[in-house]
Amino acid sequence: MPESCPAPVLQARDLCHVWRTPEGQERRLFKGLSLELGAGEKVVLLGANGCGKSTLLKLLNGLLPISQGSLHWRGEAISPERLRDRELARRFRRDCVLLFQHPEAMLFNPSVAEEIAYGPRLLGLEDIPARVARWANELGLEPLLELPPFQLSGGEKQKVALASLLALDPGLLLLDEPTASLDPRASGWLVDTLLDSPATALISTHNLSLAAELGSRALVLGEGGQLLFDGPLRLALGDLGLLEQAGLAHRHRHRHGGLAHAHLHGHDWDAP
Ligand SMILES: Nc1ncnc2c1ncn2[C@@H]1O[C@H](COP(=O)(O)OP(=O)(O)OP(=O)(O)O)[C@@H](O)[C@H]1O
Ligand SMILES: [Mg+2]
């Protein structure tokens, strides 16, 4: 690679995820998926239920081992063996964060304040009280700081999980359905925060209306986990054939007076 061309922030080559069913049968997802995320890019990951979005984000975060293929982060190879190097693991974990689709899986501290402080403390960062105060303020969590996270509402838990990641000042955000439980105001805050941030982000969502706000590039996965599209988000959202192939277009009946007819839609049910 020429010196003037910096390494991508994340580069996956020929990824494949293999597992066995309880009956011993081999199952595969992705069958050789390759992608690159460049510095500062905001990329939206689209695909139907079960196509592999969450699995892909976990592979890219090093949380699931890659069965085949390779993963490079800022030019360094990442694998379970490589992550035994504590210094590399510390740098990678601070930079590359994953927001789980179900935030309960991330919350285990006795209070919201301790939850937000946990990552920065584990990674030996400075100014922990200031980090907690900043992100609690940004996400409106101040009244909840002393509460146990398990007592919070779904959207509040999502905000605590987000705050605990953002408190690390990460450079690479892997966000799995981050707006699923957020109200419109909090979703708007997240869109603005992401767009104002220099960080690279890969964001999965089903919300095609919000997708257009979250990024400018789309990765569309087919129902077998194959990469159907990698390009401008607007092109993907305007391509009803692609959306139908990905299982992202829906058909429902319209009722006009006494008449009813059905046709395909690419927009979300709740879109204006
Ligand atoms: N290790 C594994 N063992 C069993 N099944 C697995 C494994 N890894 C992936 N799968 C299956 O692969 C499919 C993809 O799951 P994944 O959660 O990634 O989908 P998704 O695109 O995030 O779906 P959703 O939109 O519902 O969140 C699922 O059917 C899941 O059960
Ligand atoms: Mg998922």
What do you see in this structure?
The protein is an alpha/beta fold and 272 residues long. It has one domain (10-265): Rossmann fold (3-Layer(aba) Sandwich). It is 31% helix and 28% strand. It has helices at 53-60, 86-95, 112-122, 128-138, 154-166, 184-196, 208-214, 233-237, 240-245, and strands at residues 10-20, 26-37, 42-46, 68-73, 76-77, 96-99, 172-176, 200-204, 217-221, 227-232, 250-256, 259-265. It has a six-stranded mixed beta sheet with strand order 6-7-8-3-9-10, sandwiched between helices. It has a four-stranded antiparallel beta sheet with strand order 2-1-4-5, covered by helices on one side. The chain has a two-stranded antiparallel ribbon with strand order 11-12. A hairpin with a 2-residue loop joins strand 4 and strand 5. Helix 3 (112-122) packs parallel to helix 5 (154-166). The longest helix has 13 residues, at 154-166. It is globular and about 60 Å long. The model has no long low-confidence stretch (mean pLDDT 90). The structure holds adenosine-5'-triphosphate and magnesium ion. Magnesium ion binds at residues 53-54, 101, 176. Magnesium ion binds next to helix 1.
